[in-house]
Amino acid sequence: MQTIPLRFDNAHVFVAGGSSGINLGIAHGFAAAGANVSILARKAERIDAAVAELKAHGGGVRGFSADVRNYEAVAGALREAHGAFGDIAVLISGAAGNFVAPALGMSSNGFKAVMDIDLLGTFHVMRAAHAHLLKPGASFINITAPQSQRAMMLQAHVCAAKAGIDMLTKSLAMEWAADGIRVNAISPGPIEGTEGMSRLAPTPKAAEASKRSVPLGRWGRKEEIAWAAMFLSSPFAAYISGAILPVDGGGSAGRYDPDLLGQFGQMGITSQV
Fold first, then answer.
1. What's the rounded Cα separation, in Å, for the pair 250 and 212?
2. Which of 44, 72, 90, 91 has its CA 20 to 30 A from that of 54?
3. CA distance 229 to 185
């Protein structure tokens, strides 16, 4: 993993949902920069594998098994992590669930499951973490998604949950400012090597169409999300709070058609100014 010249030596970084995907990539970024890292996830076997990976960076690593839908379990893990490494300087909340389905093909339980994991789970992590955050100075980052602001078919449940996370981020950025806690969110675009993209673009044709929809013409990499999280947690972002930062290759800028400029050129259209 390529690194950036930011250091978090001995800082305590807690990553909820940190056993895989984007969140594990973020954990790797901070661990490589000298942080002590705690990760929380539901599946114990994934936690063990992730902890083994993260220990290769040389810092302290702890793993905790808890379901973010269970407030008491989350609170207990945070207390134990705080006991191991002290005040939490950076907290990443990224536990999420997703499946592809039309609203009429989705059960009430299916919709509720995503709302409970994504939105209620984010609230649980935020509420339980507050007592253990570095005050002043903590950086709290939620992981949201483009569906929070850009509606997507077959993703009604995710659109609703992520929109809630965005508003929760902004609300608590105001409520916790007096404690010296900055609260932001990162909205990753399509990221290669993630379970989410294997579901949203399950075939080579779908993957190519997805890449063509991104102005920069490619999917992002996990370390690019880690770099964004590290920037938001650094002194360079000391005046940034309440922001929803897209890290999506320009995908959120608007409707992108890679063929449009070429079509104009073929028609011989030039500026008349």
1. 12
2. 72
3. 9
Domains of the chain: 12-266 (3.40.50.720)
Residue 267 has pLDDT above 80, yes or no: no
Give Cβ neighbours of residue 35 (< 8 Å, ≥ 6 apart).
8, 9, 10, 11, 12, 13, 59, 89, 90
| Cβ neighbours of residue 14 closer than 8 Å, sequence gap 6 or more | 37, 38, 39, 40, 78, 81, 88, 90, 91, 92, 129
Token duo for residue 191:
């990221």
Q: In whole angstroms, how far apart are CA 35 and each of 43, 73, 143, 163, 251?
A: 23, 24, 20, 31, 31
Is the pLDDT at 273 greater than 80, yes or no? Answer: no
79 token code pair:
């207390």
- pLDDT at site 226: 98
Quick one: pLDDT band at residue 197, thresholds 50, 70, 90?
Answer: confident
Tokens of 80: 């134990």
Distance, in Å, from the CA atom of 7 to the CA atom of 230, rounded to the nearest integer, reads: 9
pLDDT digits (tens, 9 = 90+) for 88-133: 999 999 999 999 999 999 999 999 999 999 999 999 999 999 999 9
Give the contacts of 27 (CB within 8 A, at least 6 positions apart).
Answer: 13, 15, 18, 37, 39, 50, 54, 92
DSSP 192: T
pLDDT band of 265, cuts 50, 70, 90: low
Percent of the chain with pLDDT over 90: 87
Ordered DSSP codes for 110-126:
HHHHHIIIIIIHHHHHH
On whether the CB atoms of residues 16 and 80 are closer than 8 A, the answer is: no
Give start and end residues of each alpha helix (H) in 115-203. Answer: 121-129, 156-175, 195-200
Give 268's pLDDT tier (boundaries 50, 70, 90). low
